[in-house]
Design goal:
By secondary structure, the chain is α+β, with helices and mostly antiparallel strands. The protein contains 5 helices and 13 strands.
Length: 385
């Protein structure tokens, strides 16, 4: 019994020692952990202090920022001082004379002598209509003119004949007048050298001669009138010939001005009517229409220098000058001009078209590339005159 008791006591003591050792190890392990925690807490506090210091800009940063701000202010001032001497707009486009080519007579296209985008000179033949029917009309007109001239010659001959007849009637009248006066004188004398019947015969002959002379004079006047009518017929026939010649010439359609063919819509064999558009000729004169705001026109004057940037030629700025300012805003020439006399009114800044012409020397090799309808940005130098 005593041996078993001793073994039990030894086992109890050994267990207590092992428990004590485990608690001591746990404390040892807990101690470093608390120190590391303290170290971490101390580290976080340092980071907070560093963040507070980093929020304050350094002197170098302030100096650089001040320099940049100063440069920007100077640049803005210089831009303002420069830009106030210029007026510019992107509401601008090129314009030019576009001459429509239309037929003047009805006919069939026989030849087309030009093609699209071909350069032509003034008076150059562009197309030819079938001229045969118009040549026949010309021959008819010439024949009628010949007939009218013959009628005039006949009327002239008739006038001469009537004048000769009138002259004979005048001679007969003078003879009858002389015979009557002689017979009447002899009858009035005491000796009665002639009878009453002879006096009556002489008087009747005088009256007949007067009637014949009056009739001859009337015939002469009628013949003169007939000649005038015949001469008018000649004038009318000459006009008909001239008109027929024009009709023949209209079968040869010519360029109204020098320029470039555009929008050709006619082909050989096509039947056309008078007034029908066949093509267009774009003239060589090109200018810029800049729609400036009414508030920008105070210092714009004719003759001022203009720098023109055309979008289709990005590598070149052209030189021009202000040619004229339109006598009215664009809205005044609109299809439906505004009427501000009724209803509510909202003020809108109006735009006025300004015509700017190119300096031909500045166009150079780009002359053929500047065509009507191109977008551009003109800049007017208000310092020039």
């Amino acid at each position: 019994m005593s041996d078993s008791d001793d073994r039990d006591d030894g086992n109890v003591e050994a267990k207590e020692r092992s428990r004590t050792h485990e608690r001591g190890g746990d404390k040892g392990r807990d101690q470093p952990r608390s120190e590391s925690d303290q170290h971490e807490k101390g580290g976080n506090g340092g980071e907070k202090k560093t963040d507070k210091k980093s929020k304050r800009p350094s002197k170098k940063t302030l100096i650089i920022g001040g320099i940049i701000l100063g440069v920007l202010l100077i640049a803005g001032l210089l831009y303002y001082l420069h830009a106030r001497h210029f007026v510019s707009t992107d509401d601008a486009y090129t314009a030019g004379h576009v001459h429509p080519v239309a037929a003047r007579v009805v006919g069939t296209i026989e030849k087309i002598l030009v093609d699209d985008n071909q350069r032509v000179r003034a008076g150059q033949i562009l197309a030819v209509l079938d001229p045969r029917i118009y040549k026949l009309n010309l021959e008819k007109a010439r024949a009628q003119l010949g007939q009218a001239r013959a009628t005039v010659e006949q009327a002239k001959a008739d006038v001469l004949q009537k004048k000769a007849t009138g002259e004979r009637a005048e001679s007969d009248l003078q003879k009858a007048q002389t015979d009557f006066e002689r017979a009447n004188g002899l009858y009035q004398k005491d000796i009665k050298a002639v009878s009453k019947a002879e006096v009556d015969t002489a008087d009747a002959a005088l009256k007949s001669a007067k009637g014949g002379f009056a009739a001859a004079r009337a015939n002469t006047v009628a013949a003169e009138a007939q000649r005038a009518v015949a001469q008018a017929g000649v004038t009318s026939a000459e006009a008909a010939v001239h008109d027929a010649q024009l009709q023949v010439s209209y079968t040869r359609i010519k360029a109204p001005v020098a320029g470039i063919i555009s929008k050709k819509t006619v082909e050989t064999g096509q039947r056309i009517q008078p007034g029908q558009a066949l093509m267009a000729v774009v003239g060589n004169d090109i200018w810029v229409v800049a729609n400036l705001k009414e508030t920008e026109l105070a210092q714009v004057q004719v003759g001022q220098r203009v720098s023109i940037h055309v979008d289709s030629v990005p590598d070149k700025d052209f030189v021009g000058r202000v040619d004229s300012v339109q006598a009215g805003t664009g809205s005044q020439f609109a299809l439906l001009p505004p009427d501000n006399a009724t209803g509510n009114f909202t003020k809108i800044v109006q735009r006025v078209p300004v015509k700017i012409v190119f300096d031909h020397d500045s166009l150079g090799k780009y002359r053929t590339r500047i065509v009507p309808g191109l977008s551009c940005v003109p800049q007017i130098d208000l310092r020039t005159r």
